[in-house]
Design goal:
Blueprint: E1 11-14, H1 19-30, E2 35-39, E3 47-50, E4 53-58, H2 61-68, E5 72-75, H3 79-91, E6 96-99, H4 106-118, E7 124-126, E8 132-135, E9 139-142, E10 151-158, H5 161-170, E11 176-181, H6 192-201, E12 207-213, H7 218-229, E13 234-239, H8 263-272, E14 276-278, H9 281-293
Parallel strand pairs: 1-2, 1-5, 2-4, 5-6, 6-7, 10-11, 10-12, 12-13, 13-14
Antiparallel strand pairs: 3-4, 8-9, 8-11
Active site: 251
Binding site for CoA: 17-20, 43, 100-102
Catalytic activity: succinate + ATP + CoA = succinyl-CoA + ADP + phosphate; GTP + succinate + CoA = succinyl-CoA + GDP + phosphate
Length: 295
């Protein structure tokens, strides 16, 4: 099994005809993703060839759903137009919209997050500024490399794209059920807690890797959730142990206030919840190996 994305997921790409959309649509198709079309109002009715596979371009997400039964959208729309693209996907009630685009104004993210909530959260928003979702051997929606790991029993949720790839590669011989890159912006849709809940309910996920970073309190809140609701072993890594004090680092969400939001405070909160925390990605991978051996 997998969470949020599997071999039956029908994926559309908003912004498929742009340079990034074209490049990553081709890569997702090679990974076996069931892409059923793209959305671009200015090019509606056209077809785009991807190495012999022809995909239709629709005028809207609603039309794409009606014609193909699409349940997932990946957004490669430029930042200025992302708010409109996500609002359109929410109005169409697509099941999941994965927002890859970085540089989206926080106010825009607040608007589409609140709009989805006002509509009853019928659409799961992943991101923005994220690598997407990868369920190895089943489907890959986003920019996560498809050839760095196989399917297996580990679930992964991460704020960082590059650290996602590194942990997947280091644990490639064990493999992953699903990896979810949630993004590091101050306002995101799907959270660590949402993914922890889904992995806990997935019978084929046996252990979980959670990657966080300095700033905010998302990891502390996740620690509280783990303590109360998660029975599966969790291994964690917090990016930023070596960050200079008082210097803003990394993602827009990496804002430290006093002692809250530091790597050490997050590590302490997670360890208090029974999570083993590595000081480096490689140490974190080794901790997960020990966990898997003990299952």
């Amino acid at each position: 099994m997998a969470i949020f994305l599997n071999e039956n997921s029908k994926v559309i790409v908003q912004g498929m005809t742009g340079s990034e959309g074209m490049k990553h649509t081709r890569r997702m198709l090679k990974a076996g993703t069931q892409i059923v079309g793209g959305v671009n109002p200015r090019k509606a009715g056209q077809k785009v060839d991807f190495d012999g596979q022809s995909l239709p371009v629709f005028a809207s997400v609603q039309e794409a759903i009606a014609e193909t039964g699409a349940d997932t959208s990946v957004v490669f729309v430029p930042p200025a137009f992302c708010k409109a693209a996500v609002l359109e996907a929410v109005d169409a009630e697509i099941g999941t919209v994965i927002v890859i685009t970085e540089g989206i104004p926080v106010h825009d993210s607040v608007v589409f997050w609140n709009y989805a909530e006002s509509k009853g959260n019928k659409t799961r928003i992943v991101g923005p500024n994220c690598p997407g979702i990868a369920s190895p051997g089943k489907s890959n929606a986003g920019i996560t490399p498809a050839d760095i790991t196989d399917a297996g029993p580990i679930g992964l949720v991460s704020k960082s794209g590059t650290l996602t790839y590194q942990l997947m590669y280091e644990l490639r011989d064990i493999g992953f059920s699903t990896s979810v890159g949630i993004g590091g912006d101050p306002v995101i849709g799907t959270t660590h807690i949402d993914c922890l809940k889904a992995f806990e309910a997935d019978p084929e996920t046996k252990a979980i890797v959670m990657i966080g970073e300095i700033g905010g309190d998302a990891e502390e809140r996740a620690a509280e959730y783990i303590k109360a609701h998660v029975t599966k072993p969790v291994v964690g890594y917090i990016a930023g142990f070596t960050a200079p004090e008082g210097k803003t680092m990394g993602h827009a969400g990496a804002i430290i206030s006093g002692s809250a939001g530091t790597a050490e405070s997050k590590k302490e909160a997670l360890e208090a919840a029974g999570v083993k925390v590595g000081k480096t990605p490689s140490e974190t991978a080794n901790l997960m190996r020990e966990v898997i051996k003990g299952l």
